[in-house]
Amino acid sequence: MDESPSASDRELLEELRRHRAELRESMSALEDALASPAVSDLSRWTQRVEAALAEVSGDFRAHVDLTEGPKGLYLELLQTSPRLAGAVDGLTRDHLLVGGQLDDLLTRVAGPDVVADVDGVRSSATALLGRLVRHRQRGADLVFEAYEFDIGGET
Predict the structure, then answer these.
(1) Residue 5 pLDDT > 70
(2) Which of 19, 57, 83, 99 is most exposed, with minimal Cβ within 10 Å?
(3) What is the distance between the alpha carbons of residues 120 and 49, in angstroms, rounded to a whole number?
(4) What are phi and psi of 149, to 5 degrees?
(5) Is residue 73 pLDDT above 70, yes or no?
(6) Domains of the chain
């Protein structure tokens, strides 16, 4: 452990905890939407999946702002714990990959070919959820390693 989090760091960590819980909730909503039947009402399924993806996308982009922004966690960690640079770099690369996956899925669900690609959308979105789960785990590990502070955020 390098040091205990300062008051401003604790505020940021609490905000990360709240956003982490929101992202988990939106991920759960996406999983539910994907699992709903598409055969009986493709239009309804598409609307649910698109809405859930938009929610995940918004929550994820808020996470990126909190971590990579000018007052974000990663800047603080790199200044106080340069040994964590490799982990920060990996999480930052994840942000680009996840953002691209989200954009791709939103385009696919909004497109006219979703009828023929329900299985493909489900497969890609499930892969996205897996990547997000792993990203959240590595992010929690990073925070704990830096501060011995559990950001949890589970509901």
Answers:
(1) no
(2) 83
(3) 13
(4) -130, 120
(5) yes
(6) 7-145 (1.20.120)
